[in-house]
Amino acid sequence: MKTEEKLSILANAAKYDVSCASSGSTRANSPGGIGNAARRGICHSWSADGRCISLLKILLSNDCLFDCAYCMSRRSNDLPRATFTPEEIADLTINFYLRNYIEGLFLSSAVYASPDKTMSDMVDVCRLLRKKHLFNGYIHLKIIPGASRELVDQAALLADRLSVNIELPSESSLKILAPQKSRQAILQPMHHISEHKTGFALEAKKSRHTPNYCPAGQSTQMIIGASGESDLHILNLTQSLYRRMQLKRVYYSAYMPVNDVPNLPAPLSPPPLIREHRLYQADWLLRFYKFEAEEILSSNSPNLDERIDPKAAWALRNFDHFPLDINRASYEELLRVPGLGVLSAQRIVAARRVTAIREEDLKKIGLVMKRAKYFLSIKGRSLAPSSFAYHHVVAAMNRAEPASSSKIRHASKQLRLF
Amino acid sequence: MSELVYLYDGSFEGLLTAVAVAVKSPRPVHRVFAGRHYVPSLFATTLMVEGDPAQAERILSYLQEISKDAVQLAMQAFLSEDKDAANYLYEFIRLCLSRGAAVLQFHTNDSVRSLLNLSRKVDFEAHRLNGMLRFRILEDGVLYAPFQSDHNVIAHCAGHFQKRLAERTWILHDTGRNFALYWDTNSLQPADIDDELRAYTTHFGELPEHLLTDQERYYQHLWRCFHAAVSNPERENKLLQRSFMPRRYWHFLVEMKGRNRG
Ligand code: SF4
Q1: Global pTM?
Q2: What is the pLDDT of residue A402?
Q3: ipTM for this prediction
Q4: Which of A59, A188, A307, A312 could be a cystine partner for A397, CB 3.0 to 4.6 Å?
């Protein structure tokens, strides 16, 4: 098979993996070597679905022995199969990297042999890149559940980021939809990586020569909408992954029905894109806005509202806490105001250090008040229009969604029409 | 009394000199412009200021004394090529003379805020192009990246690739400003680009046929295959794609060739 065909098949099969982040590592170039890793990460292009392309995201093989119900590459599907050699992938990576198409490689694979054999071939790709081509760009490697600890450690010492996909948010869903995978086989390598990373970090404080173990940390991904878990269940899981396993990112992937199986949404039903988007917003609140999962959702209302972003929803539920005085509210309080982000909260704090903020300064500081005005006051005077009813606020929250949200809503409306 | 407007030649030295002269002017100065940005007005007295290395040097060391960020800000303002950059800088320095380094925190002051915004814009575009530059590998192994940008970011980008591709020889070519930098694995220097090559790449966004090696065509083709295959048709959202990757950058992007009506 020609490289071109393999590339199309294996990139196409890799598109269900969401992550494309290339951040968090600062690998420097080495003498005779190629490349480095930029801490901030760099996007190189955007695909027609509006997602950033930063890495050569590809499978080593789609020739799977497993039969996960939600997966295109499952064994019982009749479709073209391809497997790259490690050399082929290394060659593509280097040639794409030199032309500045990519930041590096994101390598995953179907389980085409035993988990150990599959994992070991993937580690070979990394070894070729790092040792033969002296490649210092970014590498994200997927861990195959069931691979040995030794292989996981080798992977961690060669790659920047590792990920083990949770796939489904609960053990019971896993049993039904991915019978050959067990919760244990997924969580155990996560645990292992998290512990070793901490160990190596402690070691590094004593000696400069400690190698870098999984320097950009680990991430995971779960499928949304293939099984019945509530958003609260998902957010609680996410929260514990961040806190207990020190994950860098949890990705959500709206389920796209690819197979006609009894337990899953029928083919052609639209992927729950808005729900996925709301989950990312809630995830953001956990990571950067110091929210707890239980503040965002509760057992009484365990699912995110599709019409409104979770921060606005929280603020509306706690409307009696507002308005906050823009000159007195703490940074943490400002972060909870709908319409204010990290940047605007920082600007407020910086500006009022010099002199108290007046109403006419708001625009100058670069604040967008469409949503925030209902929640802020200056010198005891609310910034909202003099008489407004609660439902005005709700409507305003709806109308003035951030651009990214409205684009997603717009696009999924179009999808529904077909 | 008519308005006083200072003009300079568009160089960094010229800008600093004009700002220095304006700051020292006994008469209130209305504006400072690069000559190419100035639209003549009946009511203004214009004064062309010649670049003077000594004056420029002095104002730079003054900014240096205030803080490293102030120098950075002046540099970025210049690179932004914004028509009001010199005005902002003039106001900024006048403020600094009376209030010192604290001025950098005056987010509610129009000029300070505008300078900070310009600086952010320049950094943003440089970062964007660090990702969106596309090298073509020539017969002799030199990597060549033609591009166009709103702001003058070639030096920022060169800094990035000096670290990343230190052991390769490469050329960055800002076709709009017709300025190119050549890295020979050791040092960075301005390079002359053949007029014909410049005209061709500027127009077509690609190397002329005879310079495209088979290898180069091969990897360009593979990259296009990859780019198409990795997208999810069920999630197609070209609006989102364009908001991250505006059309004006597509011209030199290997993967967007022929997609201009997407
Ligand atoms: S292991 Fe399951 S999810 Fe992974 S490729 Fe095979 S069938 Fe798909």
Answers
A1: 0.89
A2: 65
A3: 0.92
A4: A312
